[in-house]
Amino acid sequence: MKEVEPPLALLAELTHRCPLRCPYCSNPLELARASAELDTASWKRVLGEAAAMGVLQVHFSGGEPLVRRDLRDLVRHATEAGLYGNLITSGIRLDAARLAELVEAGLEHVQLSIQDSDMANGDRIAGLAGAQEVKRRVARRVREAGLPLTVNAVVHRQNLDRLDEIIHLAVALGADRLEVAHVQYYGWALRNRTALLPSRDQLDAATATVETARARLAGVMVIDYVVPDYYAHRPKACMGGWGRRFLNISPAGKVLPCHAAETLPGLDFPSVTEASLSEIWYCSAAFRRFRGTAWMPEPCRSCDRREIDWGGCRCQAFALTGDAARTDPACALSPDHAVLGGAIADARAAAPGLSYRQHSAAALSPA
Amino acid sequence: MMTDKRGGAARSVVEGACVLRFAPHARFRFDEVRRAWVVLAPERLLLPDEQAVEILQLIDGERTVDIVIDKLAQRYEAPREIIAADVLKMLQDLLDKRVLRL
User: Fold this and answer.
1) How close, in Å, is residue B89 to chain A by CA atoms?
2) Which entry of A120, A139, A301, A360 is 20 to 30 Å from A177 by CA?
C-alpha cells in the first residue's frame, strides 16, 4: 500500500443543534445534545493538532455552527494556526455584528444553504417560517462584508423543477459559486427517500438546465453539480477515498472518515479525548479498515477504476445491502445495483409527506 | 472587459497584456508539513506541480502575463511560444476558477 498522506481538510461539526429541521439533514438520526458537545478548549486543541499534521482547510459545520457562542474564538484559533476557515451555515442568526466578528477573526468564506427559490416551499422544507427571507438578507450581508459566497442548494423531487429559478436566485444573491447538491440518502434523507427521490425525467431536465446555465454564467458563477448516486453508472469517490483526504469530527468528539460513518457497525471510532488526531488518522483500526484497495471485494478488486472511485461509499453499501464491505450499489457492476431501481419505483408511487429531523426525546411517538 | 465566444459575456480571457493577481480570498503559501506549495481558496485546494509553482510565484499584481512568459522562457531557455501556451492555459483555468483575478 502507498504511504498514507496527511488529510487535506477537516469538517468540524461543532453541534447538532439547528434552527432548521430539513428532512434530508446529513446529521445522524440520533442527534447529540448540547451537554455532549466538546468544549472550547478541546476544539482549540484539536484545531492545533489538525494544522500541525497538515490539514489545510477547516469547514465549521453542524448542525448550525452559529449556535456555538465560542465560534469566533474557534475561527480565530484556526486562523492563527494557519487553517483556511469556511463557515457552512443556514444563515439563521448571522446578523451584521456576528458576521463582522467572524470576519475580524479571519473567516475566509461562507457557504449558505437555501431550500428553494419559492419562499413558501423553501420554508416548508426547512421547517421554519421566514427562513428564506432571512437567507436573502444574509447573502447580501456576506457580500457587503467582502467575503466570497457559495450558495448550497440541496435538490430533490420537491424543488428540482425550479432549478433554473434557483440558479437565477443564486446569481441575484451574488454567489461566486453554486453547489447544486442532490440529496444523499443516509440518515434522515434515507427515512424520507420515497418523498425526495427525483424521477429520471426530472433529473435529465435538471442536468440540461445546469449545462445551459454553466455556458451562460462562465466567469460569473461556478456551478458544481454531480449526478446523484441512484441514477449513476459509476459510484462517487466518497470523500476521495476512506481515510485518504478528509477528517470529520462529530460534536461529541468522535473522529470519523465521513459524517455518516457512525452508522457502520463493528467500527470503533476513537474520540479526540482518547488519542491525538494524528494517531487516529494513521493508526486507528477504524481509519485503516477501508483505506486503500486491500479490503475490496470483486468487482472492485480487479477494476481499473479502483483508485478512481475507491469502491464508492461504505455507508451507502451498508445502508442498501447490510454489508459495509460490499461494492457500492451505485456502481452498475455491483451485484446489488438493482436495489436502486427498486427505490426509484417505490418513490414514483409514494406520497410526498416528510419526516422532519428532531432530537429523539421529542419524538417519543413513532414517526 | 474582453469576452470569449465559448463562454458567457462576463468571462474574462487571459492575454499577454493582462495583469493578474490572486483573488482576495485565495492563499498561495508553502506548507511545511508537505514541504510543498499549496493554493487555498473557497472550497478549493490545489497542489500545484513544480512548473505551476514557478508560474504562480511570478503572479504579483504588477507584471503583465507577457513579462511572466518572458521570464520563464529565459529561465528554461525554451521557445517562447511553447511556454506561452502552457502559461496562458494554466492562468485561464485559475481565472475561471476564481483563484486569480484581473
Assistant:
1) 15
2) A120
